[in-house]
Each structure stands twice: as structure tokens, then as C-alpha cells.
Design goal:
The chain is an alpha/beta fold and 409 residues long. Helix content is 33%, strand content 10%. It has 15 helices and 10 strands. A 7-stranded mixed beta sheet has the order 2-3-6-7-8-9-10. It is globular and about 50 Å long. The chain starts with 16 loop residues before the first helix and ends with a helix.
Length: 409
């Protein structure tokens, strides 16, 4: 990867507490608005308004982002995002939240060009003291990711997970906060470099989620991983309507291309499922629409299927609610009532959606959870990554299905 300019001296390159806790896992509580005292708080947990930013002391990931040099790009389009090289010290990030069924995450990039209107991960840019609206405009490429990952796995990864009382290996989820196969991957290849490193290991538990058919480029290395470790792949398809998909997910590959990727991955012998998350009330939940996605997924060879109702964090609501007012004015009042003060749809709606997903699974013969055969070389059984939306309680934290698909936005 070519870098323009020299790196400025950076303190605290291990990243801020905000980076470790929120890049890949949902925050424990909503971030309050307003500035925090940089003299009293080691890490700011809310983005600053412009006049405060000018006088603020940046720390952690915000400081890293502020001094990240531009990354060279061959792209000439005036609509392309800005690329920067982020000088991180770690690529394997710990996820301590009990809300998700994995211990570690890998996100080769920060920010995502797919620009999905509902993406929950926009708040990760706010932790760099950037507006959530810059999520698709400023993409940060993690420097030396493969070499760092090799060190991280050797130092951090456990083949006897505490969550499983030592019966299973830690699970690594790739693509929880940005899509690992967004357009930047064509130039910088950070995702493939990480996969090549993981392919050298044995007995690991790994999953990938993406909206991109670009993943088929890496079938060779994915097959190597699957021989030595447990590997699950989720392809997100929220709707089969191409015009609607372009509106909701402006720069993501069309649904037909994603389904073709499912088919190609399955023909290569890999374990693949489809995520139809998030389910957008009044937009993608029409009669027969979710069922059509499931039918197409089954035809493509998907082994599992899940969907979760839209969850909106404040940073995402700032982008998504104005979008709804402009493009779906008849739904604006409902969304304001449901999401302006709460990140969740009403409990009754979520319960009915969960029941609907359960019926769909039974109708098409999908597994309720991915069941990935564990290679005989492995000493531990496979951790199921996908949250069972049909069995999930209707209240409380967002389902993994909703979280993970939004995170790839």
C-alpha cells in the first residue's frame, strides 16, 4: 500500500477506550450530546461541535485519525471518497459485550463507501471526532494489518473461549462495523491480507459478513481457511427490488450479484447463509417481500437465513430519519414516533417480525442457526455466530441479525 507523506508522531497508538469498546460492539448506553472536558476525561465519548473541536485535545483514535496521511488511489472519479492510512497498533479488537456471540472482531477499514442509509456503525466515525455523515466519505485503511494480525492472534486469541467454559475457540467476526469488501479492498487488499494470515492458523472459529460479490475473488484463500478452521459466510440481501436497493444502499452491489456470490461460494464448498437485515418497517417488510428474499436465498444454495428489525443509534437516526422524510414521507411520522427517542421499533412489531422469520425458516427448510461441520483436526466445536431471530426475546438489545447487517453498511 502506497502512502503519501510521513506519519506525524502519535501518542496513545493503542487506540482510545472508545475505539476498543465501540468500534465493533454496541455501546452500553446512548451517548449523551455535548462536549466533555478533555482535561478531566481521558477519552471523549461524544463528537464535538466545530467551535469546540478547534480547541479540543484529541486523544486515542481521534488523534490517530487527525494525523492519518492520505492513501494513494488510482480512482479519478470526483465522487470517490477520501482515503487515509490509519496507523493502528492492533487489528484484532476485543468485544466485551454480552450482547453478541463473538469475542473478537476484525474491521480492515473504518468507514464504508456503500453508504447504506440505515447503517448503525456511523457512530464509529463520531469517536474519531468526525460527523457520522462522513462515514462513507472518509475511509481509513488500517496500516500493516496482516503483520499486526499475526501478532494479535499469537498474543490474544484463545482456543478455549471463556464464554464457552473452555469448550470452544474464541470466535472472530470480520466485517461488523464496515464492509470488508467495499471498493477500497480492490486497491488496498487489507481484507485478503488478513485472510491469508488466518489461513496459516488451525482450529479457529471465523465468520465474515458482506454485501459485496467481491468476496468470490478470495475463494481460494477462504477454502484454505475452511480446511483448517471453522468458517461461516453471511451475504446480506435486504430486498430483491434493485431500485429500492440502490436507494437504501447506494454503492453496494445489486441484490442479484450478491445472490450469485452465494451460489458461487456454495459451489466452492463453503458454508454460506443470507442475512435480510435490517428489516425496514413499511419499506422492506411488505407482504411476500421477505419471503421472496428467503426463496431466492434458498435457490442460491444458502444454508441459513435470518432477519432483524431496524435498530437506529442516534448517529444513524440523524442520517436516516431525514432520508425517510424525503423519500418516504408517508412513513415519516411513524418513524419519528418509533425512533426519535428510542433505537428500537415497538416490541409488538419486533415480536411479529420474529415470528414471521420463524415461519419463513420452516417453510424453506433453513436451519435456525448455522451449523458448520467442524474439521476433524479441531479440538473444539463450532460457535454459532448468528443470533436466532426466531427465538430471540422481543425486548432488550438488538438481535445479532440486525446488528451485523447494519454494521456492514
Amino acid at each position: 500500500m502506497k502512502v503519501v507523506g510521513d506519519l506525524a508522531p502519535v501518542a496513545d497508538q493503542h487506540g482510545s477506550m472508545a475505539d476498543r469498546m465501540t468500534t465493533d460492539c454496541p455501546p452500553e448506553s446512548e451517548v449523551t450530546s455535548g462536549a466533555q472536558s478533555s482535561s478531566q476525561d481521558p477519552v471523549r465519548n461524544a463528537p464535538l461541535v466545530p467551535h469546540e473541536r478547534a480547541h479540543a485535545r484529541l486523544v486515542g483514535i481521534a488523534r490517530l485519525a487527525a494525523c492519518s496521511p492520505p492513501a494513494e488511489t488510482r480512482r479519478k472519479s470526483p465522487e470517490r471518497p477520501e482515503y487515509f492510512v490509519l496507523p493502528v497498533r492492533s487489528v484484532l479488537n476485543k468485544c466485551d459485550s454480552n450482547r453478541v456471540p463473538f469475542e473478537w472482531t476484525i474491521n480492515p477499514y473504518r468507514g464504508c463507501e456503500f453508504a447504506c442509509k440505515y447503517c448503525y456503525a456511523r457512530y464509529t466515525h463520531e469517536y474519531m471526532e468526525l460527523d457520522g455523515g462522513a462515514f462513507e466519505k472518509k475511509i481509513y485503511v488500517k496500516k500493516d494489518a496482516a503483520a499486526l494480525l499475526a501478532q494479535d492472534v499469537s498474543r490474544k486469541y484463545s482456543y478455549s473461549s471463556e464464554k464457552s467454559d473452555g469448550e470452544r475457540p474464541d470466535h472472530i467476526a470480520i466485517g461488523t462495523a464496515t464492509d470488508p469488501y467495499q471498493p477500497a479492498e480492490r486497491e488496498y487488499g487489507v481484507t485478503r491480507a488478513c485472510l491469508e494470515e488466518l489461513a496459516k492458523r488451525e482450529g479457529m472459529s471465523i465468520s465474515i459478513i458482506t454485501k459485496s460479490n467481491q468476496i468470490v475473488r478470495d475463494i481460494d484463500v477462504l477454502k484454505k481457511i475452511a480446511v483448517r478452521s471453522s468458517l461461516q459466510i453471511d451475504i446480506t440481501v435486504t430486498t430483491l427490488r434493485s431500485r429500492l436497493a440502490r436507494l437504501l444502499e447506494p454503492r453496494a452491489p445489486q441484490p442479484r450479484l450478491r445472490l450469485a456470490a452465494v451460489k458461487e461460494l456454495r459451489e466452492a464448498g463453503l458454508q454460506v447463509g443470507v442475512s435480510a437485515s435490517p428489516l425496514l418497517p413499511g419499506i422492506t417488510d411488505g407482504e411476500g417481500e421477505l419471503e421472496a428474499v428467503a426463496a431466492a436465498a434458498k435457490e442460491a444454495g444458502a444454508q441459513w437465513f435470518f432477519s432483524g428489525v431496524l435498530f437506529l443509534m442516534p448517529s444513524s437516526a440523524k442520517q436516516f430519519l431525514p432520508f425517510v422524510r424525503e423519500k418516504f414521507p408517508r412513513l415519516a411520522r411513524q418513524y419519528e414516533q418509533w425512533y426519535s427517542k428510542n433505537g428500537y421499533a415497538p416490541e409488538d412489531y419486533r415480536r411479529k417480525a420474529s415470528e414471521r422469520v420463524g415461519r419463513i425458516r420452516r417453510r424453506y427448510g433453513f436451519e435456525s442457526r448455522p451449523r458448520v461441520p467442524v474439521n476433524q483436526k479441531l479440538s473444539c466445536s463450532q460457535m454459532a455466530l448468528s443470533w436466532d431471530a426466531a427465538a430471540a426475546p422481543p425486548s432488550g438489545a438488538p438481535t445479532m441479525a440486525g446488528l451485523r447487517s447494519c454494521a456492514t453498511g
